[in-house]
Amino acid sequence: MYLSDASNAQLLVRYSDVFFDDIPNLKEEIEKLNMHKAISIICELIRVRDAMMEPIQILGGEIRIPFETVLKRQICGIDPKSTKELFSNPLLRKDVHIISVQMLLILLKRIIQFGNYKTMEDIDYEILEDDYKKIIQLQLAVVEKVNEKHLAELDANHFLYSTYHLNYQRNVAHEFLRMYYMMEVVGRDKNNFDLDIQGEYRDYYTAFAQKYGFTPTQYSSFLFGELITYYSDVNGLICNSMWRNIEEVYGQIKEKELISKVINILSCSIETYKKWAIESENQEWDFSKFFELPFIKDKDGRYISICDITLRNAFFEKIFWLIRECYPQADKSAMAFFGRLFEKYIQDVTEKATNGDYEYIAEFSYKEKKKEKKSSDAYIRKGTNLLVVEVKGFSVLIDCMIKNEQVEKNNEKLFVKPVLQADLCLSVIIEDKTEFFGIEDAYIISVTMDNINAVPDYYNEIHKNIQKRKVCEKTKYYYNFSVEEYEMLMYLLERQYDVFGILRDYYNSKALRPFSNYLQERYEDIGMTDFMEDLYDKASKRMKELVFPRS
Hints:
Elements: E1 3-4, E2 11-12, H1 15-18, H2 26-31, H3 35-47, E3 56-58, E4 61-63, H4 67-76, H5 83-88, E5 96-97, H6 101-114, H7 129-152, H8 156-167, H9 172-185, H10 204-212, H11 216-231, H12 246-250, H13 256-265, E6 267-269, H14 274-279, H15 288-292, E7 295-297, E8 303-305, H16 308-313, H17 317-324, H18 336-353, E9 359-362, E10 365-368, E11 371-374, E12 378-382, E13 385-391, H19 398-402, H20 407-429, E14 441-448, H21 456-469, E15 475-482, H22 483-494, H23 499-507, E16 511-512, H24 515-522, H25 530-547
Parallel strand pairs: 1-16, 2-5, 6-7, 13-14, 14-15
Antiparallel strand pairs: 3-4, 7-8, 9-12, 10-11, 12-13
Helix pairs in contact: 3-6, 6-7, 9-11, 9-18, 9-25, 11-13, 11-25, 18-22, 20-21
């Protein structure tokens, strides 16, 4: 029976915690704003939410203070008078925040809903400290409203699930090399796949390039340029507009026209979001339109990235849907081969990482009642332990996050059914295949594009469900990992860590947390496997060739 892990809980400051006047009326205050300026400030505040100040010397030691602490003093008047107060005032704790991605995105939706659209044409403005203060105050007013709603009604499972999902920091380097491998390395030649699935082959690379005018690798390469703004060592406010201009940013780059095309398919005018913002007003986790179109454009062609989370999503999740749009909606099997590409990537990462005391066992065919079937996608054996890898090219159903709907269907699709499929197969083959002789414990992992987040009530029900329906007595442990979590596990396996011990300890933990968090707390500098590192080097070289081609 799992319990929630509250060791890393983060708290949000309300308006009434720091200001003593009436809570602002959001609609009235938003109507007074310059929308163009307000959007810039919101996007900038999201960018600096995790920024750290330069190290300072205190009592013979060195510490780094979050930039948010500076904002608390400047904007909210939380001004410590001594070093002791700096560390004792609860509002100055690192886990207490006046900047929240979720709340700023809700505020952005309210601005889209209630804003004065004429001010989108007023681009000749200064950004002063009072402007930042106004936006932060309005965001704290949003926190106040959401808190009131939660006091009246809160589904704790949905809240935890959506919090994990929104705030997970995707590793863009991993997503870049993964898509490069799937689209450019193996996906362009059907002979890279077994004969029995070559009939399903789709040339996504060519279809994508023909529809959009640039290749999938060019698409990912150009987006890296937009990510730079989030990775630069920023620890202060720029007091200037965050809106960008293609000519000013990329004017010296030969491929700027292609970069403009990439930005265009991922952007829209602010008016385009309005109908959705109104309809989803009461859905505090619905940011679907921001994920679909992560750039906002004004009438003069300037554009702005909404936030790093929506931009990172464009590297893997979004490209799936861009590929889907290359085929007619009536073509229900259009994306089936994408799942095959995903399986191929996981199989190759697994095989290349397996060495030393670990033995790799590839997918194989077997007969059950004279019917030809395929095994799970990969196996790894060490002693009497067997790791069973079942790969599914699935993502979390969006309704789970934004509407708290289809939760059971989502849990079945990503976790329960893949595990039971692998379990059933294992029950048939384990006594007949010599590579499995002597196996005592099987660990089944359902690897999906993203995964069921670490919500104890969900996991307790899932485990009870699997325990009731599984048929192989060797199946002892079962998991649903995102591709990135699985990559982390393969890194540790390649370096001969005891991954079965890691998996067993995680499974038996009382406080449930995301597997990625569990690993990062125990092992420093979990990086890429050697295979992934080599792929990344090749992908990076290819990126340089595409962005900076030789004349």
